[in-house]
Amino acid sequence: MSLKVTVVSDAAEAPYEQVRAQIADQARSGALPVGYRLPTVRGLAEQLGLAANTVAKAYRALESDGVIETRGRNGTFVAPAGDAAEREAAAAAAAYAQRVHRLGLDHASARAAVEDALRAAYGSS
What is the value of pTM for the model shown? Predict the structure, then answer.
C-alpha cells in the first residue's frame, strides 16, 4: 500500500485541495491505514511537481481536520479516524444550533437549513 496522489493542473480545484481531498479519501477509506507515514512536504512536492507551500497547505488542512498528525521530526502520519472528525462535527453542530436559536429560527427551519446544506455538499439523496 502506498499513497497515490495526482494533480490535474487545469482542474477547477486548486492543487492543494486536490492533494488534501485525495489523502483524506484514502485515509478515510482505509487505503492508507492509521499510522501510515506520509512523505515529507518537500518529498511529496517534488513527486507532484508542486511548490512545497502547496503541499504544506494541504497537510495543515488535513491536520486541522484530524486526518493526519505531525509528530515533529518523526514525520506525519495518518491519524485514527472517527474520534477527531466526530468531535469536530459535534462542535460544529452545537455552534450551529446555538446560532440558529439566537437568530430565532424554529426547529423545523433549522433542520431544513441543515438538510439543504447536506444535499448541496453530498448531492441529493
Answer: 0.69
